[in-house]
Amino acid sequence: MSVHFNGIMRHGRVRGVQGLSLEIGGLHPTPPIGGCIEIISPSRRKIHAEVVSVRDGSAMAVARCGLEGVFVGARVEDAGPVVLHPCAAWLGRVVDPMGRPLDGRGPLPRGPLAQPLRAVPPEAGTRARLGPRIDLGVRAMDAFATCRRGQRLGLFAASGVGKSSLMSMLARHADCDVAVIGLVGERGRELREFIEDDLGPQGLARSVVVCATSDSAPLMRRDAALAAMAVAEHFRDLGKRVLLMMDSVTRFALALREIGLSAGEPPATRGFPPSVFAELPRLLERAGPGPEGCAGSITGLFTVLVEGDDHDEPVADAVRGILDGHVVLDRRIGEGGRYPAVDVLRSLSRTVPGCLEPPERAILARARRILSLHRDMADMVRLGAYRAGSDPAVDEAVRLAPLIEDVLRQGKDEAGSVAGAFAALAVAMGPGA
Questions:
Q1: Coiled-coil annotation: which residues (predicted)?
Q2: 73-89: buried (b, 16+ CB within 10 Å) or exposed (e) per residue?
């Protein structure tokens, strides 16, 4: 959409193209950071772009699609900001970051309210507190990383450890009104597999899926995360209990890195420019309880790809410091045949003390103590260096740890609850639980 001033169309020209970025001149005043423009190609195709840098009267922009056909001198026009119009009819649909359908089921209805991709979180002083604990439907998380309504948890795992299967279990079984699933940089062939096999009709019926595949421009991959958050905020403002799942924050950060480097930012921490670590909290802080008096909330579950099982790499370290807890998926546990492959000893929820009853806290403490001791002694027992009867605590750990592992083992179609998880642990550990 072009912008007119006193009947005169405001436009400029492309001055240069380098890599992913475009140099734009002739727009007065120069568009602000985040401003949207359109480049008119010779075929009259409009290429949407966003201003990422301004200097010396010129603007640097990054396009939301390929730059094929763009040439020096191409016409540039101002465009309106990207906004979404979500509504209840979006449930069960798959959309791209611009709000266009990806599922081949026809156009999407437009809701009456415009939802911008970027928004500020509720003021900290007037934000509601976390709600009661919720059933996520996964026993390992319900017991060892109990989640409260409006909490934000990180799911940390390397590739191929079962993140998608775990997300599908949460989408189908978690106690929520609406699930919003943001797939950032997803493999194209896996979208239908995730929707049809993992999510299924039951999970999709109450979900909105926002997807930008790995071959999308970095701006679209970034906007997939922003659009998913915007859709979640829409339903939160309607008083809904929203479960937002984003896979993955790491790919969101990689898209930000491409954009930042194209804008001329210097690479800093392991090649990530400083703007990446400024943008992460702006996104993640938008999830959580709504403002005081709003019945809605956004419970956020954000996956983080841990390259080479390095949990201290910059993105993982930054995200861990922002969120309210973390759940670690371990490849060795999955290779041992126990799914979900949650490492319960390395997972924690920072809100657990306030949402468990005293008997439940005692069960959890004993289960952690047994599993920790069993892990410490596993090699000695396996090698025959430990003699049964030498230590009653070790004997108990050797006997009970496999029973606790059986409780944590759960099929993809099997639903759980917090109360059920603690009841199963109490039965597995017997007297003293």
A1: none
A2: ebebbbbeebebebbee
Q: Encoding tokens for residue 291?
A: 């403002």
Q: Which of 416, 418, 420, 423 is nearest to 137 (CA)?
A: 416
Residue 162 has a pLDDT of 86
Q: Is the pTM of this model over 0.85?
A: yes
> For residue 130, what are its two tokens?
């976390």
Report the distance separating Cα 99 and Cα 102, nearest Å.
Answer: 9
Closest CA to 133 of 91, 175, 179, 182: 175
Q: Residue 8: what pLDDT?
A: 41
Asked if residues 302 and 315 have their Cβ atoms less than 8 Å apart, the reply is: no
pLDDT given at position 80:
78
Task: Check pLDDT > 60 for residue 9.
Answer: no
Cβ contact 54:32 at 8 Å: yes
Residue 10 is predicted with a pLDDT of 67
Instruction: Measure the CA–CA gap between 170 and 200, rounded to whole angstroms.
Output: 12
- SS3 sequence of the chain: CCCEECCEECEEEEEEEECCEEEEECCCCCCCCCCEEEEECCCCCEEEEEEEEEECCEEEEEECCCCCCCCCCCEEEEECCCEECCCHHHCCEEECCCCCECCCCCCCCCCCCCEECCCCCCCHHHECCCCCEECCCCHHHHHHCCEECCCEEEEEECCCCCHHHHHHHHHHHCCCCEEEEEEEEECCCHHHHHHHHHHHHHHHHCEEEEEEECCCCHHHHHHHHHHHHHHHHHHHHCCCEEEEEEECHHHHHHHHHHHHHHCCCCCCECCECHHHHHHHHHHHCCCEECECCCCCEEEEEEEEECHHHCCCCHHHHHHHHHCCEEEEECHHHHHCCCCCCECCCCCEECCHHHCCCHHHHHHHHHHHHHHHHHHHHHHHHHHCCCCCCCCHHHHHHHHHHHHHHHHHCCCCCCCCCHHHHHHHHHHHHCCCC
For residue 123, give the nearest of 290, 254, 265, 240 by alpha carbon. Answer: 290
Nearest-angstrom CA–CA distance, 353 and 385: 38
Q: What are the tens digits of pLDDT across the range 295-308?
A: 999 999 999 998 76
